[in-house]
TrEMBL record:
Sequence positions that bind ATP: 108
GO molecular function: ATP binding; protein serine/threonine kinase activity
Protein name per Swiss-Prot or TrEMBL: Protein kinase domain-containing protein
UniProt similarity note: Belongs to the protein kinase superfamily.
Cellular component annotations (GO), alphabetically ordered: cytoplasm
PANTHER family reported in the protein's UniProt record: LD17053P, SERINE/THREONINE PROTEIN KINASE
Entries under InterPro entries matching the protein: Kinase-like_dom_sf, Prot_kinase_dom, Protein_kinase_ATP_BS, Ser/Thr_kinase_AS
Species this chain originates from: Triparma columacea
Keywords tagged on the record: ATP-binding, Kinase, Nucleotide-binding, Serine/threonine-protein kinase, Transferase
Limits of the Protein kinase domain: 78-382
Record Pfam families: Pkinase (PF00069)
PROSITE patterns cross-referenced by the UniProt entry: PROTEIN_KINASE_ATP (PS00107), PROTEIN_KINASE_DOM (PS50011), PROTEIN_KINASE_ST (PS00108)
Length: 382
């Protein structure tokens, strides 16, 4: 018999999904109505912010033209100040609210190629209410469905967080003989603090019906000493399949190849990793990612993108492949040097056991997310 709390959660999930759908529908109606208004009426002109084409940018022109501009979003406008960074389909700008507020925000601007990802980030981010997950503050010009029409630029507004986990790890690295990668010396207390925050963020996402699917150092920021998950573009609705069909296996592998990073991809999401009749649990994909994350908090990198120097002086980049993921070379070091010293910390704090529990080849053998907290120093902090 289903418990009362679970029934209430399912009711709340249905209600929240309906409310968000209504909100997005009304937003699209508003956009479609005003975008068709007369050009000589200022109240009809660009009600949802400038698009790429409104700046003469087109789909592939220089988006740096946004600097100094005002962009209208659903809940108000923002004034763009400077470009923070850029990726394959998006640019991120520093901005403030147009009413002169002092609070800084990060505005993510996607072109037509990134509209599907922007829609997913909007739908996921609007549901997040955890200090360990970066939710969406506002958005603009994101159609609820594909129409085949170039909508120009899509906008997502996030809290502005200045420190990335990658930069923080780099600040703790020592020099290593070239071309070796140095190993960060992050204090155990910080490893435990950040890893616990990442687990809390994943648990929150799972409770809201989503799996992150792309847990890596580059998708974590640090705010007030707490780890914050970012980049929900690869997120998936949580689900389990007791029996996987051949088409299911092919579809999951194709989606993973397009949306996830190979260095933290679990064995079952490679081509041929799932066979007809196997079971699949999307929660266990994030468990694998947590194992990679804990290793990276200690060594700086995923266990499947590096190998140990023979003398233990540091790490070397290697090409990540399905064969590397299927191996256990990351767990075979028994020597000394800098590598050995960090493994001593891993053993002492109980983290080696945590990694082993998370990085099981078979999904069903991996511990649940809640079970990770039962190991070593992680439990002590909680």
């Amino acid at each position: 018999m289903m418990s009362v709390p679970r029934v209430l959660f399912q009711i709340w999930d249905i209600v929240s999904t309906t409310l968000i759908s209504i909100y997005v529908f009304l937003y699209d109606v508003y956009a479609n109505h005003f975008s068709s208004g007369p050009n000589n009426n200022p109240s009809y002109h660009q009600p949802h912010g400038p698009t790429a084409s409104s700046f003469g940018m087109g789909g592939n022109s220089d988006p740096k033209n946004l600097c100094g501009r005002t962009v209208r979003l659903t809940k108000g406008s923002v004034k763009v100040e400077s470009l923070l960074g850029e990726g394959g389909f998006a640019y991120v700008y520093l901005c403030r609210r147009g009413d002169g507020g002092e609070t800084k925000y990060a505005l993510k601007v996607s072109n037509m190629s990134g509209v599907e990802q922007a829609r997913k980030e909007r739908d996921v981010g609007m549901r997040m209410e955890s200090s360990n997950v970066c939710g969406v503050v506002d958005f603009g010009n994101i159609p609820d469905k594909d129409t085949g029409v170039d909508v120009g630029s899509c906008y997502l507004l996030f809290p502005y967080i200045t420190l990335s986990l990658r930069a923080h790890l780099n600040s703790y690295t020592k020099s290593a003989p070239s071309p070796l990668l140095p190993i960060p010396n992050l204090p155990p207390s910080e490893v435990t603090q950040y890893f616990s925050g990442i687990i809390a963020g994943i648990q929150h996402m799972h409770s809201r019906g989503f799996a992150h699917m792309d847990l890596k150092v580059d998708n974590v920021m640090i705010r007030d000493g707490n780890a914050v998950l970012v980049d929900m573009g690869s997120a998936s609705r949580t689900f389990t399949k007791p029996t996987v069909s051949r088409s299911d296996a092919a579809r999951l592998a194709d989606q993973a190849a397009s949306n996830t990073t190979v260095i933290i991809r679990p064995p079952e999401l490679f081509e041929g990793g799932l066979r007809q009749g196997d079971s699949f649990d999307v929660f266990k994909v994030d468990v694998w990612g947590l194992g990679c994350m804990l290793y990276a908090l200690n060594f700086g990198w995923s266990p499947f993108e590096v190998e140990y120097d023979r003398q233990g002086r540091g790490l070397r980049y290697v090409d990540c492949s399905q064969l590397r993921v299927l191996g256990d070379g990351w767990d075979k070091w028994r020597g000394g040097g800098e590598v050995g010293r960090r493994w001593e910390v891993m053993e002492r704090e109980g983290w080696r056991g945590v990694c082993r529990k998370c990085l099981r080849q078979e999904q069903k053998e991996r511990c649940p997310v809640g079970g990770i907290l039962e190991e070593g120093a992680v439990q002590n902090l909680i």
